[in-house]
């Protein structure tokens, strides 16, 4: 048995963005409204209650759609990747990227979601992006749905709560997979698919004041996404047998607050609920514990004849996931202090430091997550999001000395290497984000993740010029050495 000492030859180093946070050009090229276009910027935020910040109602949607401008809606202008992708990809090539994770903006291809024909101008845009990546031998890793659902499907079917959306998503996926079958090998169906349960509008396009039972609607929507993902996986293998199809989970690893068995049990339940999503997409069926969970919460997920067979027959080739922080579970969480996070809050862990946004810094948790996932599924893993959001300062000489980001990335990559030595099969790593983009949870620009700085503030003001941070040179060295040089 080989004792692997480092990352494999051909390890896919790179970076990641999402179309709705980077592209901008919300009213260019025939693109329709997306769910992300509905989310405004709020200057004052409670980072322990981001779900309330992102809560979308019918009134908010009507107000957003009546405001046909990018002002006040940062995801409508992004960082103008739409017009600057060649400049950005050249920087990614300079970094030495082997892969670049991006998403296709669904309403850029089907503006309403249910259109008879795709939007050719949108298809040509991604042709140009993929051709530019090929010029530098950068492999695209494409997410089909990354919080960019067409608003027309939201208004007509209440998003994924309506089973009709399955057909529209499959047609969209078939369209782009056929178009780019010689340009893209790696595909992810849904980004952080568990977000549909955590934040129903962001993940599932569900406007909560239009349903009687949000939890019921969310699990029904999730089931529709599972079926759609399996059908797309089936179609993908028909289009190009060389395609590799992955699922994508926001891995939320939970520790018990104490050794009290009740806290341990609560952590186990929370971890099970998180891994429900990979259980279905990897094993092809719902785990048995969900029967009781649904019964206890009065949930009745409606499954059509043939759904179970579809899930069982068309499972994924690899597992990708995001990892930023760990969480803490307790049977009495009110007894503990609360810290913030991305779409969620958690009990404070006294053993970990926290960022300004309340994220608990836990590199070892990434090793734990990798080992648990590989032990559970024995499929190749891909860390497709991992990074540190921070307020970067531009010095008088124009440099950005983000040693804190280097420290974060170094510690997490070190733990990935340890996991590989533990026997985990790891395909690659794409840090979030490759370049500064609009924050998914807070719509801020000042919460920066990239190793490339973008001159733009929270109100959309700035030159949009790109600058290399100190972490740029460091990450370039990491990639060139295949993870050996982390100094």
Name the descriptors.
487 residues; alpha/beta; TIM Barrel; eight-stranded parallel barrel; two-stranded parallel sheet; 41% helix
Verbal overview:
- Pfam families: Glyco_hydro_1.
- This is Amygdalase.
- The active site is at 385 (nucleophile).
- This protein has 487 residues and is α/β, with parallel strands linked by helices.
- It has one domain: TIM Barrel (Alpha-Beta Barrel).
- The protein has helices spanning 19-22, 50-54, 58-66, 74-77, 81-95, 106-109, 120-135, 151-157, 164-179, 195-198, 200-204, 214-239, 261-283, 289-296, 307-313, 363-377, 403-421, 470-480, and strands spanning 12-16, 99-103, 139-145, 186-190, 244-250, 254-256, 318-322, 327-329, 338-339, 346-347, 381-385, 426-432, 452-454, 466-468.
- The chain has an 8-stranded parallel barrel with strand order 1-2-3-4-5-7-11-12, surrounded by 5 helices. Strands 6-8 form a two-stranded parallel sheet.
- α16 packs parallel to α17.
- The model has no long low-confidence stretch (mean pLDDT 95).
Within the CATH hierarchy, at the fold level, what is the topology? TIM Barrel
Counting structural domains, the number is 1
Mean pLDDT: 95
Q: How many beta strands in the DSSP annotation?
A: 14
Unreliable parts: none
Binned, the helix content reads: 40-55%
Number of helices: 18
How big a fraction of the residues is strand?
5-15%
Largest sheet geometry: 8 strands, parallel, barrel
CATH superfamily: Glycosidases
Spatial order of the strands forming the largest sheet: 1-2-3-4-5-7-11-12
What is the CATH first-level class name? Alpha Beta
Radius of gyration: 21 Å
Ends apart, CA distance between termini = 30 Å
Pfam families: Glyco_hydro_1
Protein name: Amygdalase
Keywords: Glycosidase, Hydrolase
Organism: Paenibacillus amylolyticus
């Amino acid at each position: 048995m080989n004792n692997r000492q480092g990352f494999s030859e051909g390890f896919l180093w790179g970076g990641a963005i999402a179309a709705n946070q980077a592209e901008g050009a919300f009213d260019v090229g025939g693109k329709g409204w997306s769910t992300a276009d509905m989310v405004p910027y709020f200057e004052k935020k409670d980072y322990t209650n981001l779900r309330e910040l992102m809560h979308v109602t019918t009134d908010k949607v009507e107000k957003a759609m009546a405001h046909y401008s990018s002002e006040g809606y940062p995801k409508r202008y992004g960082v103008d990747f739409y017009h600057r992708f060649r400049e950005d990809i050249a920087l990614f090539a300079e970094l030495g990227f082997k892969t670049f994770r991006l998403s296709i903006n669904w309403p850029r291809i089907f503006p309403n979601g249910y259109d008879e024909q795709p939007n050719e101008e949108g298809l040509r845009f991604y042709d140009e992006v993929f051709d530019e990546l090929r010029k530098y031998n950068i492999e695209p890793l494409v997410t089909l749905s990354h919080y960019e659902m067409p608003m027309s499907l939201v208004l007509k079917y209440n998003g994924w709560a309506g089973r009709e959306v399955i057909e529209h998503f499959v047609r969209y996926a078939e369209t782009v997979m056929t178009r780019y079958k010689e340009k893209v090998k790696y595909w992810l169906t849904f980004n952080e698919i568990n977000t549909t349960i955590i934040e129903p509008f962001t993940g599932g396009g569900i406007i909560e004041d239009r349903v009687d039972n949000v939890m019921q609607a969310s699990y029904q929507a999730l089931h529709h996404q599972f079926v759609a993902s399996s059908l797309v996986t089936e179609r993908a293998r028909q289009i190009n047998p060389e395609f590799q199809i992955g699922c994508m989970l926001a891995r939320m690893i939970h520790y018990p607050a104490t050794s009290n068995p009740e806290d341990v049990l609560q952590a186990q339940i929370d971890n099970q609920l998180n891994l429900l999503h990979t259980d279905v997409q990897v094993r092809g069926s719902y785990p048995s514990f969900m029967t009781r969970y649904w019964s206890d919460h009065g949930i009745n997920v409606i499954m059509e004849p043939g759904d179970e067979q579809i899930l069982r027959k068309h499972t994924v080739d690899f597992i990708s996931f995001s990892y930023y922080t760990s969480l803490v579970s307790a049977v009495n969480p009110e007894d503990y202090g609360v810290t913030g996070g991305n779409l969620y809050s958690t009990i404070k862990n006294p053993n970990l430091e926290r960022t300004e946004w309340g994220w608990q810094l836990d590199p070892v948790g990434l090793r734990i997550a990798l080992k648990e996932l590989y032990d559970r599924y024995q499929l190749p893993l891909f860390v497709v999001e991992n990074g540190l959001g921070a307020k970067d300062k531009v010095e008088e000489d124009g440099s950005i000395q983000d040693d804190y980001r280097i420290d974060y990335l170094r510690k997490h990559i070190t733990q990935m290497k340890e996991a590989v030595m533990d026997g985990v099969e790891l395909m690659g790593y794409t840090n979030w984000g490759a370049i500064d983009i609009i924050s998914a949870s807070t719509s801020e620009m000042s919460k920066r993740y990239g190793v490339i700085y973008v001159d733009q503030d929270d109100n959309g003001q700035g030159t949009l010029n790109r600058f290399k941070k100190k972490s740029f040179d460091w990450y370039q060295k990491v990639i060139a050495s295949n993870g050996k040089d982390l100094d």
